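Module 6 notes. Inverse folding takes a fixed backbone as the condition and produces residue identities as the prediction. Think of it as a translation problem where the source language is geometry and the target language is the twenty amino acids. Below is one complete input and output pair. Work through it position by position during the lab.
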């Protein structure tokens, strides 16, 4: 895997249909959405990232520009998805923002130990949630300079 940055896709890893719709709506509202791919459990997130299983036809070199990761997911937890991603040769360069309702300090600590780039608690108010999504999108997709992800880097 050469892991060239060829994608402007956002990977949303979320199992709650309401949160998925709110996130997609907020991206559209602020005209930030490139393509947003949604997976609804941790096992599918791993398959997507490693181009296996249901996502075997996806190019493994086409990594997302940003991953929005919930923690409490069916099949494989968000922290386990993060652990697996960061253990890969190329996974350290993919920005990951944990977006969760968890207020567990242990989740926060473990997320940063595993290499998350940012940890955000989901606001319950839609307007506030929309502003959070706007700020996340502006920062990670517009302002942030990501490291090159080519074969000889780092």
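Target side of the pair, the amino acids:
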């Amino acid at each position: 895997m050469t892991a060239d940055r060829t994608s402007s896709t956002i990977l949303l890893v979320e199992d709650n249909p309401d949160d998925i719709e709110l996130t997609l709506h907020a991206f559209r509202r602020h005209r930030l959405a490139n393509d947003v791919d949604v997976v609804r459990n941790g096992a599918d997130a791993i398959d997507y990232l490693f181009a296996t299983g249901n996502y075997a036809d996806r190019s493994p070199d086409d990594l997302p520009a940003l991953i929005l990761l919930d923690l409490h997911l069916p099949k494989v937890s968000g922290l386990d998805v993060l652990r697996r991603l960061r253990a890969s040769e190329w996974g350290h360069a993919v920005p990951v923002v944990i977006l969760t309702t968890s207020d567990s300090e242990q989740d926060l600590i473990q997320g940063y130990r595993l290499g998350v780039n940012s940890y955000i608690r989901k606001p319950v108010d839609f307007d506030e949630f929309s502003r959070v999504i706007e700020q996340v999108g502006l920062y990670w997709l517009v302002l942030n300079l990501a490291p090159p992800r080519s074969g000889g880097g780092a």
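Reference fact for the lab report: The beta strands are 10-13, 36-39, 66-69, 96-100, 118-121.
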